[in-house]
Design goal:
Layout (H helix, E strand, L loop, with lengths): L1 E9 L12 H15 L3 E5 L3 H8 L5 E4 L14 E4 L3 E10 L21 E9 L6 E7 L5 H21 L4 E6 L7 H7 L6 E3 L21 E6 L3 E7 L3 E2 L2 E2 L6 E7 L4
Helix pairs in contact: 1-2, 3-4
Length: about 260
């Protein structure tokens, strides 16, 4: 049996609007905390190219892969970070969440915000010789419920196509901007192609807006396919002085899998 720790981490983009908690002030605290926790694989959200370069100063043991959502590919990305000494990257793709998924910067239109959205998918091979697995990471729209439903559909369609080629143990991480009882989340947990379970379902809510919300809300998830045996779920609400890790609490699941199907 191999044991891994998978994390979903919305880093909150760099903006002066956040005052003391803008990313340039939090980067060291966040990077050092991630290096201390040391997840095997991290699904990041809102990570621009400049932020990625800054964060990598504190994460020398990680490789961070995946393109941005706009035409430059330098904007926010749902990037995937993994320990370089533990995995080999076999496949990597970035798909825009839109009716034209291979055209960066596009959207569904309708009730979606002006922000393009995307997901990244990777196939990782453990250097120990364990089973390869598929890791998908997504950030869906904050404004439109219909856009989020389309995003869940597109994500599952991509998984279905991948399974037709090679059915692998799968992890889906992300900021879905949706509560557990919403149709866009039910679409994933009720997916007929394979069972996908929210391994973070018993954790406290995750989004707190730097503790400005009266009540936190759960919008961050880690879904596991049936091949995985979840062992532990954790969230991280940490501060260093006035600094938070982010406006979301990162969530992490420890799970194991048999070496052979």
């Amino acid at each position: 049996m191999n044991t891994y720790r998978f994390m979903s981490c919305n880093v909150r983009l760099q903006t002066n609007h956040d005052g003391i908690n803008q990313f340039c002030n939090r980067a060291e605290f966040l990077g050092e905390t991630l290096e201390e926790i040391r997840p095997d694989v991290i699904g990041f959200q809102e990570l621009t190219c400049a932020m990625r370069l800054e964060l990598m100063k504190y994460l020398p043991d990680y490789f961070i892969a995946g393109g941005g959502r706009d035409a430059s590919r330098l904007d926010e990305s749902p990037a995937i970070g993994f320990l370089k000494d533990r995995f080999l990257l076999e496949q990597l793709s970035t798909e825009i969440l839109s009716m034209t998924p291979h055209i960066p910067g596009t959207t569904y239109g309708g009730d979606q915000s002006p922000c393009p959205r995307a997901f990244c998918a990777a196939v990782l091979m453990p250097v120990s010789g364990g089973r390869p697995f598929r890791f998908m990471n997504v950030h869906t729209d904050h404004a439109g419920a219909q856009a989020r439903m389309f995003a869940s559909m597109q994500l599952l369609q991509a998984l279905s196509r991948a399974d037709e080629s090679e059915r692998l143990p799968t992890i889906i991480t992300g900021d879905f901007n949706a509560a557990p009882e919403t149709p866009e989340i039910h679409l994933i947990t009720e997916y007929k192609g394979r069972r996908l379970t929210d391994a973070t379902g018993k954790l406290p809510p995750t989004y707190h807006d730097f503790d400005m919300l009266a009540e936190k809300v759960k919008i961050d998830y880690i879904f596991l396919s049936d091949e995985w045996e979840p062992l532990k779920a954790e969230s991280f609400h940490k501060k260093r002085g006035e600094l938070f890790l982010s406006d979301h609490d990162p969530v992490m699941v420890t799970c194991r899998i048999a070496d052979n199907p």
